[in-house]
Amino acid sequence: MLFVHGFGCDQHMWRYVAPAFASDHRIVTLDLVGAGGSDPAAWDPDRYVSLEAYAEDILAVVHALDLHDVVLVGHSVSAMSGLIATVAEPERFARLVLIGPSPRYVDEGDYRGGFSDTDIAELLRSLESNYLGWSASMAPVIMANPEQPALGEELTASFCRMDPEVARQFARVTFLSDCRAVLPEVTVPTLVLQCREDVIAPMEVGRYVADAIPGAELVVLDATGHCPHLSAPDDTIAAIRASLDDAVALSV
């Protein structure tokens, strides 16, 4: 199982979920370039201008470790870069788990991504003018779960550790990308995990993703916020485990 974190996070964010699958899977976690403990020298602003670059990095890890039958678990923006990776080389992947995915954050026509053009412009303007201030105000909102304040504090600290230049560019790539056309190209069995309340990827977005990917399964977690692998790890584990067990049962 390959776990790929979202914007402003790192591989440590999987500590409550990944170990639950270690008994029957090889577990691989990584820090995206520009995040966590990755080599700062690997960041190239001319390369990381699209989600395709991050998808290529995911495939590079798969190739370097010679991984096959991979269950790829991607959170938030990495749900989309992971999805792009599986479309490029579906033969390497057995299953795709998308946690809080959004193919497009900006509303367009009948499509509802949860944000207007003005919303995103203001978000990016705030992030670019005062990244640390933006992190301190937005991370607790993204995490939600005020009864677990340590989680909001952890996400804030994680955001603040990211180089502001990298964060600004990654945020633009994240919030301005449009991956809707890729969804119907997915051939890997897919599980979409959606929180019942998520300010970043609302319910209608999760439903859209599940409807657009052929044969995808949508599971709505009784959880709030955008990071259920931290705030509701038991529910997240149970949903992934059930999907994996169903796959095994169908193959027997």
Report on this structure:
With 252 residues, the protein is α/β, with parallel strands linked by helices. The protein has a domain at 2-104 and 179-251: Alpha/Beta hydrolase fold, catalytic domain (Rossmann fold, 3-Layer(aba) Sandwich). It has helices spanning 51-64, 77-88, 117-129, 131-143, 149-161, 164-176, 203-212, 228-231, 233-251, and strands at 2-4, 28-30, 70-75, 93-99, 190-197, 217-224. A six-stranded parallel sheet has the order 2-1-3-4-5-6, sandwiched between helices.
What keywords describe this structure?
alpha/beta; 14% strand; Rossmann fold; six-stranded parallel β-sheet; 252 residues; globular
Task: List strands and helices in order, with pairings.
Blueprint: E1 2-4, E2 28-30, H1 51-64, E3 70-75, H2 77-88, E4 93-99, H3 117-129, H4 131-143, H5 149-161, H6 164-176, E5 190-197, H7 203-212, E6 217-224, H8 228-231, H9 233-251
Parallel strand pairs: 1-2, 1-3, 3-4, 4-5, 5-6
Helix pairs in contact: 1-2, 3-4, 3-6, 4-5
